[in-house]
Amino acid sequence: MMAKRLGKGISALIPEFPEGTELVYKVAEIDVGKISANPQQPRKEFKVQSMEELKYSIREKGIIQPITVRQVDGGFELIAGERRLRASLELGMATIPAYVLPVSSDVEMMELALVENVQREDLNAVDEAQAYALLANTFNLSHEEISQKVGKDRSTITNSIRLLNLPDPILKDVRDGNLSAGHARPLLTLGSEQQQINLWHRIRRDGLSVRAVEALTKKATDEKPIEKNAPVPQKPPYFQELEEKLMKVIGSRVHIRGNESKGCIEIEFYSREDLTRLIEILDSIEESV
Description:
Largest sheet: 5 strands, mixed
Radius of gyration: 23 Å
Helix content: 40-55%
CATH superfamily of the largest domain: Conserved hypothetical protein from pyrococcus furiosus pfu- 392566-001, ParB domain
CATH topology of the largest domain: Conserved hypothetical protein from pyrococcus furiosus pfu- 392566-001, ParB domain
Number of domains: 3
Strand order of the largest sheet: 1-5-3-4-2
Order of helices and strands: EEHEEHEHHHHHHHHHEEH
CATH class of the largest domain: Alpha Beta
Distance between the termini: 32 Å
Shape: elongated
Number of helices: 12
Structural class: alpha/beta
């Protein structure tokens, strides 16, 4: 299919076919009235200012990059290029240049639309996460399969989808561009939604850096009630370094409890899919031994 083909140009959006298959994609001027929307469009947010700038550019220079569509009964269905199509409709254009691709399945439609947006770095973090979640939950693709199709590490896909576990007001702030994904991601480690909301308000109020947010969330998760006069367990200093190394390898938060002679390793997971992913990693380790 489309594993890790994120090069520039339309070739990156054209699916691979068996040798000898006749390809029918082409560029054509298509009646905008015959193009229906992509029901799985990854992009949900269309900023007014950005759309006005795009319309000005099209009015002055025309459509430089054709949209992509597939043929359906009596017309065409949009794969990618909704902003360009919307701008053309608002400008009253009768036709629009389009690549007509031989796409037959809905999952392939979704993959192509997502790849096009990821290539352009056009999606906000929430829309991108929702697109990955749709591929995982609706089209039953594993995080590994998604990573191969969009050319990103599996841990990146998993961490992106995890963002959707944050409260709606925080997600809206990320989607609107008022809060970065780097600020939002550490909030997932907090124990309650109320803690997440409280720190989010503090980020907005005080303009905290990402590192400051990471430090605050780490402090909050490390702090636990201690009984009066109870001995405070001392964690060997290199345990933290080991935790960080393990987190990079498996893409989940890791805690090493105990001392040099006895203890346990705790690995967090955030969904059934994430648990399956971790089990696959452990199985692969067992097979290599």
